[in-house]
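question for whoever is on the cluster today: can someone run the full assembly for these? two chains, 847 residues total. i dont have access anymore since they changed the login thing
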Amino acid sequence: MKDIAILYSFNTQKTSRAAKMIQESFGGKLKQVNVENITKEEFLAYENYILGVPTWFDGELPNYWDEFMPDLEEVNLKGKTFALYGAGDQVGYPENFVDAIGLLGKVIEERGGKLIGFTKNEGYTFENSKALRGDVFCGLPLDFENQARQAKPRIAAWVEQLKKEFK
Amino acid sequence: MSENKKYHIKRTDKETLRKWFYLMTLGRAIDNKAPNYLKQAIGWSYHAPYAGHDGIQLAIGQVFDKDTDHLFPYYRDMLTAISAGLTATETILNGISKATDLASGGRHMSNHFAKPEWNIHNVSSCTGNHTLHAVGVGRGMKRYNHKGVAISSQGESSVSEGYVYEAINGASNEQLPVLFVFQDNGYGISVPKKDQTANRKVANNFSGLKNLKIYHCNGKDVFDSMNTMEEAKQWIIENQQPAIVQANCVRMHSHSNSDRHELYRDEHERNYVIEYDPLEKYRRMLLRYERFTEEELQEIEKQVKDEVKKAHKEAMAAPDPDPESIFDFVSPEPYVSTKYPQGLHSGEGTPMKLIEGINETLKAEFRHNPDTYIWGQDIANKDKGGIFNVSKGMQQEFGIERVFNAPIAEDYIMGTANGMSRFKDNIRIVVEGAEFADYFWPAMEQYIESSHDYWRSNGAFAPNVTIRLASGGYIGGGLYHSQNIEGALASIPGVRIVYPSYADDAAGLLRTSMRSKGLTLFLEPKALYNDPVASAPVPDDFEVPFGKARVRREGSDLTIITYGNTTHMCMTVAKKLEEEEGVKAEVIDLRSLVPLDEETILASVKKTGKVLVVHEDKVFGGFGGEVASIITERAFEWLDGPVKRVGSTFTPVGFNRILEAAILPNVDKIYEAASDLVNY
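^ ran it for u. tokens below:
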């Protein structure tokens, strides 16, 4: 398996906490990259990615991802593999649960990137999600507001899955 | 994604980006400065900061075209107004309520920005009530094949108001070019969205309506807002159907300067909404994608600072409103009759029923002015024309475009009348405000709103609307088919109230109402529609000016002042008094309550020295109390007895005829009171 970089905003709390758990599950082998103000060149430096993308407000990307979109929409991601995780609140915001995973995932695929790390929608209760494809999410939803205790086992299972899916 | 969109940080030309940054920086500078005016006791005592709504407000103003569109900004829409064309000086003039404030000359609350000349309308503080006006303007655009859009901007909590549903349902049903923008910051003052409705995406509450497109955008993002607003406007024009744009915003500060959001928002929330400052985000984008240098942005910021400084000086030097001006623009000057200045005629001709007088006059005025419209519940379906057939035959003659049914939504009937008359100055609208006057109460918020539009806009706009209502009892109608509402409404300035009792006066007052600017409440005593007692010859062109009472019977011993159904009872009583007691009673039919013909009243009182005021409405709190007070104040020396009143008991009107008779005034009750007074 090639090196994996984990990209997320270092200014975050829950997303950073999840990144730490993912890092631990990978035995500390992930390269940590702060996505705040990331340049196109810095972003393209890897082949395997784990991206932390929480959902803000009523289904939006966080501004640090949103502001990078104009660049991301232009780059060639062919041959690169991405796994996405993100926090959402299925009780407070059931109409757009982890939408940001779906929004970012769509752009990555449009630019030729490959998404892995899909997870079953079992155990969540919500109305709509742009991350949902049939009965799977195109990433790992985490709900620290309502299912905080499940974060750890979900991450552990997801990391095991990623270890198989990343090449 | 956004690569196909028109506006993009990498592709939008630099001049446009510069203009946006200038407007956003200017708006924010004034938004931040506004509280200082209050701290210094200069003004701006109501300020609802817009910070956090920057993207969508910029976009609303930018897509608005003053040559074709109408804009209804709400009280948080400072950047919308600036983006649509208000200058910094004009904005501050409104904030500190100066006489030269374009919106209202300091009459309306601060932070209600408008520029009537550009169709940026002065709206009420009643949240979202302008949705009905936007729909009315949309109806005007459709009727006159005008290519434009009416934009109603409002907070997401306003969608909880029933009239907002009425507006959107109506726009969907009539397929009107209206763009509803919901600026969603998650709060109605301190009330979170979850306490308003089950659906966070409140626009989706309307997803079941046909002919309506719903958009969602990030109202904090300039490009998403611009692209969505432009797409929505284009879609409306192409499809001639309404759309909703729900723009996700944050409220970075308290609701207004009288609110303290730290009482209900924790520090974390207050911090994260500030973190997503839309202006800061736009600035970062301009630098990140190298569209501007830091120096260039600082230069623009300096220009803004200079402009605000200059605007502040200009606004502070502007005149304050003149206290002498308070009586200006309460009601527009009415149509002046040259042929019938007293509202009297020779009395020749074949008598016509009251209902015929109204019907014939409506038709004559519709022939006279092609820009007349009538709508209401039950107004036109084949041979039926209104619940009492007052508008019979009108749809056949004038078509469904001018004579049409309204949904059972009284506020919609009233509010869209107000709105449509904003489209063109010579439009005259008649509404059957409700099936019966008793059902008019749901329209009360639009009635109030319409009553003060002219005053509030400092004479810039008056709704040219005649509200017809079938009123009163004597039909065994009970609590919801017998009410008189004039007593309750006469205390609201800005509306002329007329209540004829004969066919000729009904015709003459209706013609004057339909030719006048402003709002007239036209009350019809429905018990008299077909009663021969109310019949009279009606000259084809008869006109009755407002504020001219009619002496229906002359006398020297007693003055009876009345209107509506009781006029005829008073005539009977006067006749009986003369026949049985030799007493000559003068009967004055007021015809107009507002304005009131005080001179005719006082002249009669001076002649007779005794006054009986009679009306069908309740004595307690009824209009007769006002008449009696005026007489006591202005004609006390001429009085030879107390001013007495006869009217309904202070109860609802019962359904059983025995109850109705016990409650409403009649000939016997009037006769007894008159007789007592004569013998006082």
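summary bc i know u wont read the tokens: Chain B has a mean pLDDT of 96. The interface with chain A takes residues 1-3, 8-10, 184, 199-201, 204, 216, 218, 221, 248, 250, 275-276, 281, 284-285, 288-289 of chain B (CB under 8 Å).
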